[in-house]
């Protein structure tokens, strides 16, 4: 299974944009890129996913490099509630399994 | 209803006990998952059920025994656990194949302590 590499931690100021990077140089053509986050004392929650094109939803934006070897999760205005561990995950499109990488712990300062 | 409900929230058990964790969803999802999460580590996949059949077992020790009695319910039976099995056990479900169309929904987990 293809692996992802993320920085261990990042810090952001409240109400500023945050760019969370993820490298996945061994990605295959059928792998989808998913992002989940885990707030303290909670189960992971879905944030966004994509295949090739950039994606937007109410929570975030996902920017995927043209060669698909990296992606960036963008939180447009970080709030204190966004402090969490963010996981970048590759999933094979027709397979019922996905593996969490080590994740990035995001700290948001007031 | 987009909830995955796990019970109990906390469980303390002795090494000779038998206990069960329960997970329920009413979203009509046909794939359900068990993950184990140690402190400050990412969740690790244990089992996947697809259409009530076990499709993936990530070489989990037999002291963990999953069961899917129906499409809404997933159990994890525990027997003769070790202290190192203490962890947060997470259940998740998805409509079908995670990837193209489907996101996974996670429960809040059961925090298990083996004494």
Describe this protein's structure.
The complex is a heterodimer of chains A (110) and B (115). Chain A has 110 residues and is mainly beta. Chain A is built from no helices and nine strands. Chain A has a five-stranded mixed beta sheet, with no helix packed on it. A four-stranded antiparallel beta sheet of chain A has the order 2-7-6-5, with no helix packed on it. In chain A, strand 6 (61-64) and strand 7 (70-75) form a beta hairpin. The mean pLDDT of chain A is 91. Chain B is mainly beta. The A-B interface holds A 31-32, 34, 36, 42-46, 49, 51, 85, 87, 91-103 and B 4, 31, 33, 42-45, 48, 50, 55-56, 90, 92, 94, 96-100, 103-109.
Summarize the structure.
The complex is a heterodimer of chains A (110) and B (115). By secondary structure, chain A is mainly beta.
Order of helices and strands of chain A: EEEEEEEEE
Total count of strands of chain A: 9
What's the mean pLDDT score of chain A? 91
Number of strands of chain B: 11
Helix content of chain B: under 10%
Question: Could you say which overall geometry of chain A the principal axes of the C-alpha atoms support?
Answer: globular
The Rg value of chain A, from CA coordinates, equals 13 Å
Number of helical elements of chain A: 0
Task: Work out the strand percent of chain B.
Answer: over 45%
Biggest interface, chains and residue tallies: A-B, 26 and 26 residues
Biggest pleated-sheet summary of chain A: 5 strands, mixed
From the N-terminal CA to the C-terminal CA of chain B, the straight-line distance is: 36 Å
> Mean pLDDT of chain B, as a whole number?
92
Q: SS-based structural class of chain A?
A: mainly beta
How would you sum up the major sheet of chain B?
7 strands, mixed
Assembly status: heterodimer
Query: What would you call the structural class of chain B?
Result: mainly beta
Low-pLDDT stretches of chain A are none
Low-confidence stretches of chain B: none
Rounded to an integer in angstroms, the radius of gyration calculated over CA atoms of chain B is 13 Å
Amount of helix of chain A: under 10%
């Amino acid at each position: 299974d293809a692996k992802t590499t993320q920085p261990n931690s990042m810090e952001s100021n409240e109400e500023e944009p945050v760019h969370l990077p993820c490298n996945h140089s061994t990605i295959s053509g059928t792998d989808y890129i998913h992002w989940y986050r885990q707030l303290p004392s909670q189960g992971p929650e879905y944030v966004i996913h994509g295949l090739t094109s950039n994606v937007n939803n109410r929570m975030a934006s996902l920017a995927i490099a043209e060669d698909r070897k990296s992606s960036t999760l963008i939180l447009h205005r970080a709030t204190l509630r966004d402090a969490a561990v963010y996981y970048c995950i590759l999933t094979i499109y027709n397979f019922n399994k996905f593996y969490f990488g080590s994740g990035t712990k995001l700290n948001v300062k007031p | 209803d987009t909830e995955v409900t796990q019970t109990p929230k906390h469980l303390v058990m002795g090494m000779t006990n038998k206990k069960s964790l329960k997970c329920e969803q009413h979203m009509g999802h046909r794939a359900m998952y068990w993950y184990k999460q140690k402190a400050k580590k990412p969740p690790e996949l244990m089992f996947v059920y697809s259409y009530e059949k076990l499709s993936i077992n990530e070489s989990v020790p037999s002291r963990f025994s999953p069961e899917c009695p129906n499409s809404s319910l997933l159990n994890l039976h525990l027997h003769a656990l070790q202290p190192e099995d203490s962890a947060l056990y997470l259940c998740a479900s998805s409509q079908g194949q995670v990837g193209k169309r489907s996101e996974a929904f996670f429960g809040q987990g059961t925090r298990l302590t083996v004494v």
